[in-house]
């Protein structure tokens, strides 16, 4: 593993950050703002303006007016506008990626992939909007017609995080718009530019004013104000479980619909009959993607005793080969962590694991004192009481532990309150079927990494939240069901 200091790509010009309210770009009326730091250098690159109370009120009124317009636009015309936005994103993808890497840190290849996937998500959900069918229920009496219809739930408040500046927002925006809802997005203050680029693509595609609004601010203040407001009918949040519980409780107190995409701590089980080389290669690529700041990242490696050393050797070799560097360098495979909080968290988790008796096989410390780089780290024989076996690491530290029996590993995999993603590697069809059924989580991927595509469900169970952000289920969270019974 090596770290390179110089960017080969000239540093792109970071755009001025603005909010988007009632169809206009604005710096808002607040005198508060937040510095945006390049995580590869720790240097300021811009400033995120905060919304004032007046800005939030304008966004809410705009969302109400936008909703009245957009709900009456036919599903076909909504689809056409959304498809235009998707094509704009595709045509702008290279520029979008450069700025995403500058503000978030991930390598350019990952930023490009995120932009292109965002366009695919818009396409998929725009098409689902055209298939938001109702039904006719056969009536008991001849003169009665019983209709079940689907209606947009109303103006949505969405809160999106910094790890995927576009993709966390695009799932909420696309589901809202496809259903006929308007939306206020409270974007990520630390990585605001790409959320802005996403919203700009919808505005440029011709979305009526007020249908989409983008604000920034102190997250707790903005969410508290928006969620309580009677005009907001639906809340969608992606972030940590602790914040999700707080927002879900607030939404519940005001009887608002919610979609909660929260933290995870995905077990990755390698059975004795697995293709060990393939498991080590795919799991390490996905563990260290986005420097481990991915909610569905494989994070608790549970490996059968009989293949343990073989797996560890291969996994460590894969981790050692990762080039860590500024994401703007074409050959960087892992960038910095997105902020200094994550570096502190990695140091704490590694120290705790070593105190608990784990062995450090590679990495374990921050790199240099410029930016927020941390070494790809592998810990082995990590006991279950270590914090990293209980808390979502959200960083490039991989804890590996052994197991001996199927029942033991299923119990360990299901031990935590999280239930987002899980992975398993085995050549046995019987084990595949059993493990797919026995794991308590929303998504299971066996012998490959197959999660997160637009057309498949994406969401968790237990304390990882509820509702789906993918597949045909994604739009359901933004639709009310209405029953109409008419007699002639
Ligand atoms: P954090 O818990 O303070 O914030 C997580 C996210 O929630 C941020 O985007 C933040 O802006 C938002 N947030 C926080 N309080 C909020 C509130 N009261 N109302 C609305 N939004 C609020 O911590 P952090 O340091 O930013 O992130 C660390 C942890 O968050 C990670 O360990 C991870 O568990 C979780 N996280 C998860 C995802 C995900 O994809 N599920 C994304 C980012 C962060």
List the helices and strands and how they pair.
Elements: E1 3-4, E2 19-21, E3 24-26, E4 33-38, E5 43-49, H1 53-70, H2 75-104, H3 108-129, E6 135-137, E7 144-152, E8 156-159, H4 167-179, E9 183-186, H5 192-204, E10 212-215, H6 219-228, E11 234-238, H7 241-253, E12 257-261, E13 266-270, H8 276-288, E14 298-304, H9 308-320, E15 324-325, H10 340-355, E16 359-362, E17 377-380, E18 397-403, H11 406-413, E19 421-425, H12 429-438, E20 443-446, E21 465-466, E22 479-487
Parallel strand pairs: 1-15, 8-9, 8-11, 9-10, 11-12, 13-14, 13-19, 14-18, 17-18, 19-20
Antiparallel strand pairs: 2-3, 4-5, 6-7, 7-22, 12-21, 16-17
Helix pairs in contact: 2-3, 2-4, 2-5, 3-4, 8-9
The protein binds nicotinamide-adenine-dinucleotide (NAD).
């Amino acid at each position: 593993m090596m770290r390179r200091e110089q960017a080969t790509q000239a540093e792109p010009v970071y755009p001025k950050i603005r909010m988007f309210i009632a169809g206009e770009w604005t710096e808002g009326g607040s005198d508060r703002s937040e510095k945006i730091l390049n995580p590869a250098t720790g240097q300021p690159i811009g400033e995120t303006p905060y919304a004032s109370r007046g800005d939030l009120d304008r966004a809410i009124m705009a969302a109400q007016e936008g909703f009245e317009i957009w709900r009456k636009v036919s599903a076909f015309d909504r689809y056409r506008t959304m498809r235009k936005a998707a094509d704009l994103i595709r045509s702008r993808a290279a520029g979008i990626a450069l700025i995403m890497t500058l503000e978030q840190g991930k390598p350019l290849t990952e930023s490009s992939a995120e932009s292109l996937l965002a366009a695919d998500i818009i396409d998929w959900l725009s098409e689902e909007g055209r298939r938001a069918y109702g039904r006719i229920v056969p009536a008991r009496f001849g003169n009665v017609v019983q209709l079940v219809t689907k209606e947009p739930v109303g103006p949505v408040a969405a809160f999106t995080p910094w790890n995927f500046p576009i993709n966390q927002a695009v799932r909420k925006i696309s589901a809202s718009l496809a259903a006929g809802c308007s939306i206020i997005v409270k974007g990520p203050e630390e990585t605001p530019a790409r959320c802005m680029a996403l919203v700009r693509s919808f505005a440029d595609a011709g979305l009526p004013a007020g249908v989409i609004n983008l604000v920034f601010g102190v997250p707790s203040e903005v969410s508290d104000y928006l969620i309580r407001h009677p005009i907001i009918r639906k809340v969608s949040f992606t972030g940590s479980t602790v914040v999700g519980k707080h927002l879900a409780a607030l939404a519940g107190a005001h009887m608002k619909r919610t979609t909660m995409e929260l933290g995870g701590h995905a077990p990755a089980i390698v059975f004795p009959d697995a293709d060990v080389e393939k498991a080590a290669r795919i799991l390490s690529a996905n563990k260290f993607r986005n420097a481990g700041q991915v909610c569905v990242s494989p994070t608790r490696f549970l490996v059968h005793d009989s293949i343990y050393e073989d797996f560890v050797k291969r996994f460590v070799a894969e981790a050692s080969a990762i080039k860590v560097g500024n994401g703007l360098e074409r050959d960087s495979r892992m960038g910095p962590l997105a902020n200094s909080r994550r570096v502190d968290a990695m140091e704490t988790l590694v120290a705790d694991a070593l105190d608990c008796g784990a062995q450090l096989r590679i990495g374990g410390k921050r790199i240099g004192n410029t930016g927020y780089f941390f070494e790809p780290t592998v810990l082995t024989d990590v006991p279950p009481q270590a914090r990293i076996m209980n808390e979502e690491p959200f960083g490039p530290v991989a804890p590996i532990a052994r197991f001996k029996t199927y029942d033991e590993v299923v119990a360990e995999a299901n031990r935590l309150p999280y239930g987002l993603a899980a992975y398993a590697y085995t050549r046995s069809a019987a084990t595949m079927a059993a493990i797919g059924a026995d794991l308590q989580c929303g998504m299971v991927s066996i012998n490959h990494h197959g999660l997160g595509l637009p057309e498949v469900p994406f969401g968790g169970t237990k304390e990882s939240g509820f509702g789906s952000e993918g597949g045909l289920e994604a739009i359901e969270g933004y639709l009310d069901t209405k029953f109409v019974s008419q007699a002639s």
